[in-house]
Amino acid sequence: MAGKAIFLTGLPGSGKSCYIDSLQTDAVIFDDYKAHAIDDNPSFDHGRRLKELLEVLRAGKSCIISDIDFCRTEAQREAESLLRAAVADVTIEWWCFENDPHRCEQNVLQRAKSYRRDVRAELTNIHQYSSVYAMPAGAKILQVWRPSET
Questions:
Q1: What is the pTM assigned to this prediction?
Q2: How many H-runs (helices) and E-runs (strands) does the chain carry?
Q3: Could you tell me the residue ranges of all domains in the chain?
Q4: Residues with Cβ < 8 Å from 20, sequence gap 6 or more?
Q5: Between 61 and which of 3, 27, 102, 147 could a Cys-Cys bridge form, CB atoms 3.0 to 4.6 Å apart?
Q6: Contact 41, 34 (CB under 8 A)
């Protein structure tokens, strides 16, 4: 029996990494899957951890694969197609954060205060991806993360 692939997507600042960190799961985590892809190619099959991902699924284990690029329908279809061709009987689920660019911008700017980092790329990605964000039919919809007021 093949494993389960849970694709987790949302805009920068939506809470993907925080959400993953909060889960109590034995699923193998592939956070920011397309980061540092082979030859900087954003295709799913150029992910540096593709071989490991396929091994995990073939072994019947669950995994969580997150990346902002999965906001795009083309990226969703490409990933599903590759996994279905490579792993017989794989189960695929989509978990998507709301498309709330305003809240995500606030989160990115708040995070920058704490970590003193440049946020221009994240803000650009919020605007680019929010306009093309498509959630697959049947996706589990998650609320954008909101920092606790302390």
A1: 0.92
A2: 5, 5
A3: 4-142
A4: 8, 29, 31, 64, 66
A5: 3
A6: no
> CA 73 to CA 47: how far, in whole Å?
18
In the block, residue with structure tokens 């221009």: 120
SS (H, E, C) 65-101: EECHHHHCHHHHHHHHHHHHHHCCCCEEEEEEECCCH
- Amino acid in position 145: W
Report yes or no: 2 and 21 within 8 Å, Cβ to Cβ. no
Do residues 67 and 34 make contact, with C-beta atoms less than 8 angstroms apart?
A: yes
Residue 58 to residue 11: CA distance in whole angstroms = 29
Q: What is the pLDDT of residues 93-140, one digit of tens each?
A: 999 999 999 999 999 998 877 766 678 999 999 999 999 999 999 999
Going by C-alpha positions, the residue among 127, 132, 4 that lies closest to residue 76 is 132
